[in-house]
Amino acid sequence: MTENLSVKEVFTLLVENELQTKKDVTPLVPAYHAEKVSMVSLFCGAGGFEVGFEWAGIEAVLSRRIDIHDKNLFDSLRGRSLFKTVYALDFFYEALETYAKYFTETTIQCANIRHLQSFPIADIYSFGFPCPGFSSAGPRNLKDERNYLYVHCCRALQEAQPSFFIAENVPGMLTLQKGEVFAQIEQDFKDCGYRTYTKVVNARDYGVAQLRERVIIVGVRNDIPFQYVFPRETHGGNGLPYVTLKECIGELNDNSNLYYEGSYSSQYMSRNRKKDWDDQSFTIQASARQAPMHPSGLPMKRINGSKWEFEGDHNRRLSVREAARIQSFPDWYEFSQGKRNSSHNTLLERQFKQIGNAVPPLLAKVIIQPIANYFLSKR
Asked: Is 137 inside any structural domain?
């Protein structure tokens, strides 16, 4: 029973229980590239981190920007990227199918991190450990087992001792149990031998057409003489104008019918779900049913404090391609639907789960750029 224990005592007990899980999965052996900065991705999902990292690695070497939407150009330059992901781990099958299509040289393993016996050596580790247990939109239950998956990232750091790590999560992790949970997580990362740099960033401040706040934690191993500084915001304020929905998806004219069809829950209709063309999207969630509305047609109408309704005939949720583009994935990046003998909405749920859980590649590119510059300076 934990009812009479303090938050710290409960947390410690649950962490200890998490570490007692059976470790019976042997990691696959990565193929390293001697001239590359090696990367390992835990909870890799569909590869948002990695697309951004490779993108940053190419631009760092070339000292110029490239158009990632030009697939032929991107493919022709990938071999020159500073970074190479050598190992990726997840147990979301459809996401790994997507990942494998675009990262053919990466050793990919479908396994539960809880049961992994050891971790590969690499220069950089990235992980976006699951966030539902931290989200302010959820129950925020201290005992949610997903709150403790980060301890396996600590296992990896203690064993592999990469020079850097980058972690991403929802802002709710900072306030769960009045900040006590995050304070312990941060301390555990430090106890692994790292200085940590933490900031809540909004993806729209870096050119993503979406209001998406996330906590970024950058860890620098204590013996590395480098102080990480978060890149200055490029959009809004005195920077470039925010990227609008019209600029992002206005010319897409997606007639694929790849949007969720079905009823809207009372919770969904409890607030505005439709942005104007000249605004940025609401956060793209890992659910097709919860996708924001397409900005076409008339705005939603507020009936009272907790009820909204649609006006006119042009009302539908965002499609898969529109959501992916808003997340800053290039159009050539296609998301696996898994087994095709499922319903239309089930197929879309699998794709939206990949898209909504991903780190926007453009944001990933920005976050890793200072680290890319550090490795270049050492060559």
From this structure: yes
What are the beta bridge partners of residue 88?
Answer: 41, 108
Q: How many domains is the chain built from? A: 1
* CATH code, domain with 150: 3.40.50.150
Most distant CA pair in the chain, distance: 62
For residue 343, being part of any structural domain is answered with no
Q: Which domain holds residue 32?
A: 9-222+358-377
The residue ranges of DSSP E strands in the chain, in sequence order, are 37-42, 83-90, 107-110, 124-127, 164-169, 194-202, 213-221, 301-304, 307-309
Which residues lie closer than 8 Å to 266 by C-beta, 6 or more apart?
Answer: none
178-193 in b/e form (b: 16+ CB < 10 A) is eebbbebbbebbeebe
Asked, for residue 68, whether it belongs to a domain, the answer is yes
Catalytic residue positions, numbered = 131
pTM above 0.90, yes or no: yes
10-residue mean pLDDT series, the chain (379 residues): 62 75 93 95 97 98 96 97 98 97 97 95 92 55 69 95 96 86 91 97 98 97 98 94 97 87 94 97 97 96 93 95 98 93 93 97 98 95
Q: Helix (H, G, I), strand (E, B), or coil: what is residue 211?
A: coil
